[in-house]
Design brief:
By secondary structure, this protein is α/β, with parallel strands linked by helices. The chain has 3 domains: 2-269, Spore Coat Polysaccharide Biosynthesis Protein SpsA, Chain A (Alpha-Beta Complex), CATH 3.90.550.10; 274-347, no CATH class; 355-457, Sandwich (Jelly Rolls), CATH 2.60.120. Helix content is 28%, strand content 33%. The strands form 6 sheets. Strands 1, 2, 3, 4, 6, 7, 8, 9, 10, 11 and 12 form an 11-stranded mixed beta sheet that branches. A 6-stranded antiparallel beta sheet has the order 20-21-22-29-24-27. It has a 4-stranded mixed beta sheet with strand order 14-16-18-19. Strand 18 and strand 19 (328-332) form a beta hairpin. It starts with a strand and ends with a helix.
């Protein structure tokens, strides 16, 4: 079995703790582990899993690999890791299609896939493992298996699955409060967890029937894409852009007649809103939860988080107040479902400064720029090289984040490895070469002449 971890999303529902540059799977929980690390541990705990395939945005792969370093069971169990890198998001139908195509090609058509969102919590891991073992048996009979969560409240933020015993009758979108109450009373409705199990062949056959355009365009993109030596599939951005954007629920699950459901009571939570997220914290006698340097006076039912700034809340109730370097959020807990719409307006009001420029040798991501300095993340493809003065016209510090950097100047070669830096004055004729076995990622910090002189003076 291959565990497929879907690690994407815009990071809007839990803004500002999550964001476009650091989405929800990277949020640290109370045990010190991020959601993606908890998902990895979950995958490692399943006996039949022999590989983990992460589908993520290409900008997050190095953050993801850093998260992997602290998961010892990957090495202890010799679990292979693979990465499918999307140039931008196309929703879950495309992500799962690429995972199925990759698994079909790498492991064969009968390999079982377990789809795991990277941003969910499961408290009963043992019961989840038993459910996966049951699902794997059913998946071998050419069925799609979905995991339905037994509801304990009329939740309006989740999709539902209506069943007839283990047979899925239909998938239902997020209901009204009254409809959700009727579902609970009916007893045949379960929360849609977004966790699925099937063989690669079954998934591709079902997509051919119900969403052939998504499958066809994904197959074309695969033909134009490159698999590196480190099990990293870099999807071609031009053909990737042609793939229709849709969720796996809309594109396939709501249409297929070939789905079985396993009913689970595994302590599942997708922590999709600040209201649900706040309930994971320690709550005092006034119903307040605090993370960071905050004081609450004559206040109740509030959740407050802050990185470094002091926050004082007086005479308030039922609020979520969160301050990070990304921004500040103040919202009533009853309105946390509206944050996604408000976040879109915020993005339109103050668009991101980040820009991506592509070149024959790789690409440059503009991280930050102002009158005093410019910061870039550059990625140099395998076997590629560039003349630094052609693309960067200011003096800069170059630091290796991933890979090995080789610099050539006057026929002399120097090497930098991870966390090592090199100062390169402006207009120096230096060539940067990536002749290693992996992609090369560096942070380039260009400072104004004044700041460079000040740095030298006070060094």
């Amino acid at each position: 079995m291959q565990a497929v971890i879907l690690s994407g999303g815009a990071g809007s529902r839990l803004w500002p703790v999550s964001s476009k540059t650091r989405p929800k799977p990277f949020i640290k929980m109370q045990d010190g582990k991020s959601l993606i690390q908890q998902t990895l541990l979950r995958a490692c705990g399943i006996e039949s899993v022999r590989g983990v395939i992460a589908v993520t945005n290409c900008n997050f792969v190095y953050q993801l690999k850093e998260e992997y370093k602290n998961i010892d069971c990957l090495n202890e169990r010799n679990i292979e890791t693979h990465f499918i890198l999307e140039p931008f998001g196309k929703n879950t139908a495309a992500a799962i299609a690429f995972a199925a195509l990759y698994i079909y090609k790498t492991f064969g058509p009968d390999e079982t896939m377990l789809i795991l969102p990277a941003d969910h919590l499961i408290s009963d891991e043992k019961l989840f493992q038993e459910s996966v073992a049951e699902a794997e048996i059913i998946a071998k009979t050419k069925k799609i298996v979905t995991f339905g969560i037994k509801p304990n409240r009329p939740e309006t933020g989740y999709g539902y699955i209506e069943t007839d015993n283990s047979n899925v009758k239909r998938f239902v979108e997020k209901p009204s409060r009254k409809t959700a109450e009727n579902y609970i009373n009916n007893g045949n409705f379960f929360w849609n967890s977004g966790i699925f199990c099937f063989t690669a062949q079954t998934l591709l056959d079902e997509m051919e029937k119900h969403c052939p355009e998504i499958l066809r365009t994904a197959q074309n993109c695969m033909k134009d894409s490159i698999i590196n030596s480190d099990n990293q599939l870099n999807l071609n951005s031009e053909t990737f852009a042609l793939i229709p954007e849709n969720s796996i629920d809309y594109a396939l699950m709501e249409k297929s007649q070939n789905i079985k459901m396993i009913a689970c009571d595994i302590g599942w939570n997708d922590i999709g809103t600040w209201d649900s997220f706040s309930k994971l914290s320690n709550i005092d006698s006034n119903g307040n939860s605090i993370k960071g340097n905050a004081l609450l006076h004559k206040s109740s039912g509030c959740h407050v988080e802050t990185n470094d700034k002091k926050i004082m809340v007086v005479g308030a109730s039922n609020l979520v107040i969160v301050n990070t370097n990304e921004g500040t959020l103040v919202i009533d807990k009853n309105n946390t479902d509206d944050i996604k719409e408000a976040y879109k307006k915020l993005q339109n009001q103050s668009p991101s400064k980040q820009q991506i420029h592509k070149f024959s040798w790789g690409r440059v991501l503009t991280v930050e720029t102002n009158s005093n300095f410019k910061m870039y993340q550059i990625e140099v493809s395998l076997g590629a090289k560039l003349n630094i003065s052609k693309y960067f016209d200011m003096s800069a510090n170059w630091t290796v984040l991933f890979g090995i950097a080789n610099f050539m100047s006057n026929n002399k070669k120097s090497k930098l490895v991870i966390n090592e830096s090199k100062y390169i004055p402006a207009k120096n004729d230096i060539t940067l070469i990536n002749d290693g076995n992996n992609s090369l990622v560096m942070i380039v910090m260009e400072l104004s002449d004044y700041l460079f002189k000040s740095a030298i003076m006070f060094a």
